[in-house]
Amino acid sequence: MSFVLPELPYPRDGLAPHISEETLSFHHGAHQKTYVTNLNNLVRGTSNEHKSLEEIIKTTSGPTFNNAAQVWNHTFYWHSLSPNGGGDADGAVSDAIISKWGSFDTFKQEFSKAATGQFGSGWAWLVVKADGTLDIVTTSNANTPLTTDDKPILTCDVWEHAYYVDYRNARTKYIEAFWNIVNWKFANENLSKSK
Q: Is 149 marked as a binding-site residue?
């Protein structure tokens, strides 16, 4: 089985002006594509060759894990964004956010703080804990909640290549822009599947 680069769920210019077509061309068309190519080369002829992406992530380490997790993390990230996204959370996610943080604005501040404060490369996640409550977690490099009991429902990529073309080193401005394209529909779908 060969892994393929998943298509973006919108045109490459679909997130502009918040994330440019140039960024998506590099981020999806070069970075994620390289992870897919590397993963195929690493698993070919091994016991991992016929495993799913999720199985590889949960059972490997080193370069195989890093490339598999980055393929999965990026695909999840693309779906965490939408040209029709943004605004306050709605539905069950909104209820769960308010239950945990008291208000959407407080949650937004806490998530932004976590994403900004992640040292070096990594990810900020909104997850469902084992007890059914929401939490904000960060992971470094290729690490992902898939290797824990947490169930991811939304993510923000804070690797520099996610924002450097558009925002240079201003991660804070990129995270501000993220709130204009965040996909609450996707988050609600993931929350309902986590139960």
A: no
